[in-house]
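Batch job 17 of 40 flagged for manual review because the log was empty.
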Amino acid sequence: MNKTAGKYHAVRRRKMSVIIILAVLLVLSMILALGIGSVFIPPTEVMASLLNALFPGLINTPGGTADIILNFRMPRILLAVLTGVALAAAGAVMQGLLRNPLVSPFTLGLSSAASFGAALMIVLGPAIFGAFFAGSVVFLGLEFTTKSLMLILSAFLFGWLSVVLVYFISRARQTSQAIMILAGVVIGYLFQAGLLALKYVSNDDALREIVTWMMGGMWGATWQTIFILTPVVLICFLLIERRAWDLNTLSSGDDVARNLGINVDRFRITGLLIVSFAASACLAFTGIIGFVGLMAPHICRMLIGNDYRYLLPASALMGALILLVSDTVARVILAPVEIPVGVIMYVLGGIFFLFLITRGHGRYLS
């Protein structure tokens, strides 16, 4: 018994160590990313600016440096972190709920659907809501545009709709995992067609916003955006983390989960609703970003296994790290010109799954 308990604690310490290492790497990457750009800022100045922002007057820092860090780079970096957390956690949860290692916000069509919902609001919002759409709301001393709030709502509704459609298709009789993925791809194409139609009928300003979203990027990062998304992502993550044991149970099969008192159907639809809300809200501001929800959970499964108590926080940290590093590369690789982070993610995603197929012999995808 003592030997078994000792082995359990050793495994638990290893998993916690992986999570701590990922958290440290993420913090270090954020500090480095704050200093990297068309204007390089040493890490010491970055830390001084951050400390001065937290404790005014403690350290004297150049005004221009602090402005670049706090008002330009920090919101973008936080948006990349929040989006990586939301997409990676959503991918891990969707894979557990639907028991399919290939599902993610991207493959289930959620990314395309959420972007369609946001684009629909951009094009038709002024005509439908009139002056109300151009208004604003002041909360906690910050001014939020009605447009931003409506974009989140529209993106969430359409993103959730795509996942619900795939879910009900997956419940159909004799539906295989391959058909489930195919259904997600088809639904994604349908919403892509809607995006093309909206591009065709939109004016120049709206067209520019839609094209930017379809490429995927962090250009829309503002402090207002961060204050909107932070509670959404954190609350959704905490709600699903509380059900980690149920996700572990569900991996043993629906019958086992039902015998242990879990309402499987309600748990699936509730879980999909929660993670779809977080992912859709982020995608409303970043556009289509693929492969984060696939890569992060698979990498973490290789490192710590399938226990969702550890897999969820590890996947969230890994997703944030991947997207942050990718966005930093996108900012500097052709500086001063920025390329869409979606381009980097497509390249990374393709290389990663080629590795799984050729080196892993597909065992991580089964």
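Reviewer: the log was empty due to a logging misconfiguration, but the result itself is present. The mean pLDDT is 84. Unflagging and moving on to job 18.
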